[in-house]
Structure formats: structure tokens, C-alpha cells
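Reagents: none. Just compute today. ABC transporter permease.
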Amino acid sequence: MTFLRFAARRVAEMAATLLAASFVVFGAMYLAPGSPASFLLSGRSASPEAVAAINSQYHLDDPFAVRYFDWLGGVLRGDFGRSITYRTDVSRLLADRLPTTLLLIAMALAVVVAGGLLLGRIAAVRGGRVDSAILLATTFAVGTPSFVAAVLLQGLFAVRLGWFPSGGAGDGIGDMIWHLTLPALALALYLIGMLARVTRSAMVEALAGEHVTVARSRGVPERQVIRRHVFRNSLGTVLTTTGLVVSTLLVCTILVETAFSVGGIGQLLELSTTTKDFPTVQAIALIIVALFMAVNLIVDLLLPLVDPRLTLGTRGSAA
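Predicted 3D structure written out:
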């Protein structure tokens, strides 16, 4: 199978999965107890005329299939409807908040990749007490949930030491990076430990390979052995784990954004869920699903390039 055919097939599969996900996301609103009109009225009593007006305004009297396809058509045009809570277009809300979330995830991912690969490589190569110390530290990191790390970092570096802001997203790229440093570290702590342990295990397994023994017997310098024959052969496993890291960041950002009042789509999702703002919840849920699938698509396309031993479409066997 050629790379282009494989890529086209994966994109088609992603589109089909996203279509099914859109149906689930839209239909999930109607699984909540009570009618949408009762949520819009916030429990207040209303006349039948008022209820009928709400149903007419939000097309709640239309058949489910009609509402779904109307909503799906709007999504394809970039129109996610109108927010019930904020009384504005959901697309505008997302445009204002999505860049903050993406920057936060990018910062956290950079910290995770740099810290996880470095610690995992040192643990595998050095061994002994260094390996034990890194395993202990990563065990602590893996056992610390993101929201706990957020509280600890906020209390120490924002409240007590005053080195970083305790909340908000800032204005301008430099100010935003400063404001998002603590949230990014809170997101990254658990995942650094996970990636470090995966990197260490993959490299330890590669170190025991016959090709490493042969390379050393031929007098290949140790640094070159580690770089070419150990670390490179571990990249397939590491890349697969990195895809899982990004997916986890998409979920955990909701808790961290809420703790630091960042104002991204994670905090918006939490507020919209509380206020039963269905159009906003549906839009954010669909975006998260789309980002999750896009990450998996990128990983699938990169794996054969990173590890030539893999054939296209064999991610499961490689993992």
C-alpha cells in the first residue's frame, strides 16, 4: 500500500468516525433528564405560550432528524449555532477562547516531550542509582493528578512566592506565555512521568538487542550506538505514546483551565455544562473529538517514517 493510498484511507475513516461522533454529540443532549425547554427556563414556571415560543425559537418542535441535519449543515459552514448563556454565536466564543487552549496545550506538550525524553534516556543509559532515582521521581509524577498539581503550583509559585500570576490568560503572546506557565506545568507533570517511563522501557529493550551487541563489538562509539541503534529504534513506541499524551492534554485542560481561570475552551465547556448551554457544549465536544482523531491520524502517518521497519497500516502490531 502506497503512502498516499494509506493517508487517503485514514482520512476517509476519520471523516466517517467524525460523522458518527457528531450524531452522538448532538443526540446526547436529548438523553439528559427533562426537556431542553425546561433547562432554558431554569426551573421557572412559564405559560404554554412561553414554552411554545422557546420551542419555536430553538426549533425544538422539529423532528430529530431535521434538527440534526440542520445543525450538521451549519457545522460544515462553520456555524455552531447561538449560545444560550452568552447570547452570541458559538463560533465567536470559540474563536476568542480556542487560541488560548491551543497555546496552553502546545506549551505543556513541549515540556512533556523535552522532560520525558530526557529523563527516560538518562535512566536507560545510566542505570543504577540514577535509574532508581528517576523511577522514583516519575512514580511520584504519575501519581499526581493534574488538578492536584495545579493547586500545589498555584499555592507555592503564585500565592506564596509571587513569581507567576495566579490566574488569567494575559494579553499579548509574551504575557500569555507568562500566565500559562504554571497551568502548562500542572498539565505536564503527570505526563512527563508517563513518557519518561515509556522511553526508558523502550530504550532498555533496544539495548538488549543483538544489533546493539554487534555494533559495540565493531567498535562503534557508545554515543553513536545510543543515538542510532537504541534511541532511534525506540521512537515508534515513543511516538505512539506522544499521541496518547496529546489526547490526555485535551481532556485534562478542562480541570487546569478551571483551576487557573484561564478562559479557554476547557473552562468554557465546564461553565456551559453547568448552565446547560447545549450549542456550546456540542461545539466544544465535537472539536475535542476532531482534535483527538487528528492527533491519531498524524501519529499513524508519521510512524512508518520514524520506523522504516513498520509497514503502512500496522500500528497495532507495532504497539
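The mean pLDDT is 81.
Action item: order primers for follow-up constructs.
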